């Protein structure tokens, strides 16, 4: 059972969140101020933290930063603040997500589920990541922020080959040999066509063209 820490000073909202999460089969630990919330967050292990921004004793932004200095637990900040600068402040303190009050509990649940999925340990032998893109080689799936990206088998294999060789520039001939096979005789422009199609489908610009040589993955996107 996943454990969620909820730090919220409004007793009514806290009770609603607790009841909702328990109904979804989560174990819930709750605190009503920033200091006690920080203490339990550092002492115990949680799968996710729901953290109100405006808390007594120690504000949520400070709590978020202090937790992040010690742990990698996913953090969603809850706040009544609507200003863009407050949302930016939450992310600057390394929150993973931000939800403004009042919020839909169904939306909150979807945010929690998505964040928990993204935070699960990945089996490196079978999963590749780059800037939010996740390739599962066992399931043959390509996703971005939990959304499936439809691609052909050759496009999938081409992107896998590029990511397996992160930091290297691959020539068109190398790509043809690996993706299409050594006995495949084709114009190297087939690689260019597949790269073009991939770029249209991918939500981030991660494939770089090295003029006169071939293609590589932009490492700055994957960090």
Could you characterize what this model shows?
The protein is an alpha/beta fold. The protein is 43% helix and 22% strand. It contains 9 helices and 12 strands. Strands 2-1-3-4-5 form a 5-stranded parallel β-sheet, sandwiched between helices. It has a 4-stranded antiparallel β-sheet with strand order 6-7-8-9. α3 links the parallel β3 and β4 (75-79). The radius of gyration is 22 Å and the shape is elongated.
Provide the fold topology:
Blueprint: E1 3-7, H1 11-23, E2 27-31, H2 34-43, E3 48-52, H3 60-70, E4 75-79, H4 84-92, E5 97-100, H5 105-119, E6 127-130, E7 133-136, E8 141-144, E9 147-148, H6 153-164, E10 170-171, H7 172-180, H8 189-201, E11 207-210, E12 214-217, H9 219-222
Parallel strand pairs: 1-2, 1-3, 3-4, 4-5
Antiparallel strand pairs: 6-7, 7-8, 8-9, 10-12, 11-12
Helix pairs in contact: 2-3, 6-7, 6-8
CATH-defined superfamily of the largest domain:
Response regulator
Q: Which strand order does the major sheet show?
A: 2-1-3-4-5
Question: What is the CATH third-level topology name of the largest domain?
Answer: Rossmann fold
Poorly predicted regions are: none
Order of helices and strands: EHEHEHEHEHEEEEHEHHEEH
What amount of the residues lies in strands?
15-25%
Global structural class: alpha/beta
Mean pLDDT: 85
Distance between the termini: 31 Å
Under the CATH scheme, which architecture of the largest domain would be assigned?
3-Layer(aba) Sandwich
Overall spatial form: elongated
Helix content: 40-55%
Question: Into how many domains do the coordinates divide?
Answer: 2
Sheet with most strands: 5 strands, parallel
Number of strands: 12
CATH class bucket of the largest domain: Alpha Beta
